[in-house]
Amino acid sequence: MRWKAGDTVVHSRDGICKIVDIREMTMTDEAKEYYILQPVYERGSKLYIPIDKEALFLRAPVTKAEIHEYVKKLPETDLKWIGDEKKRMSMIADVRKTGTSETLLGLISLFYRKRTEQHEQGKKFHSSDEQFLKDIETRVNREFAYVLGIEPGEVPAYIRETLSA
User: In angstroms, rounded to a whole number, what is the distance separating the alpha carbons of residues 116 and 128?
Assistant: First the structure.
């Protein structure tokens, strides 16, 4: 068991969470120990993660130094747009499960650039791409906001300020 009650973790799907309890529960046929998580920005829900599956779902939040480093490296991001929609959707599914904050931040930048390019050409940005962008922005903004001690809506301004410094 890596975590304890009171720790803050990042859940692969639901983002920044507090471990509110660890207890043995019977959810299937056998009793197992579970982490009980409370998403920081969604007070009404709880997540139950088997301790033996923690590596699949939980990681430590990034640090302030890591955030600063990731933002400073954004202009150097060399991610390429995947034109084939099926391949892009497959990549999106993988990133939703296993993407690091650095990868997600790079993808946000890539998707912003592609959306701007599409609009300049008079084309619409695909709705599934827009939904993915919204999803990962929310996850990154919440994690960064928690670590930086600011509101999630203030994260884009923090990124712009850091890039211009």
Answer: 16
Q: How far is CA 90 from CA 44, 84, 105, 125, in A?
A: 31, 10, 18, 18
CATH level 3 topology of 8-59: Thrombin, subunit H (2.40.10)
Which tens digit of pLDDT belongs to each residue from 125-157? 989 899 989 998 999 999 999 999 999 999 999
pLDDT in tens, 123-132: 999 898 999 8
**DSSP designation for 123:** P
**Structure-token pair, residue 107:** 């993808």
Angstrom distance (rounded) from CA 144 to CA 62: 8
User: Tokens standing for 22?
Assistant: 């660890």
Q: ∠11-158-78 over CA atoms, to 5°? A: 70
Domain boundaries, the chain: 8-59, 64-164
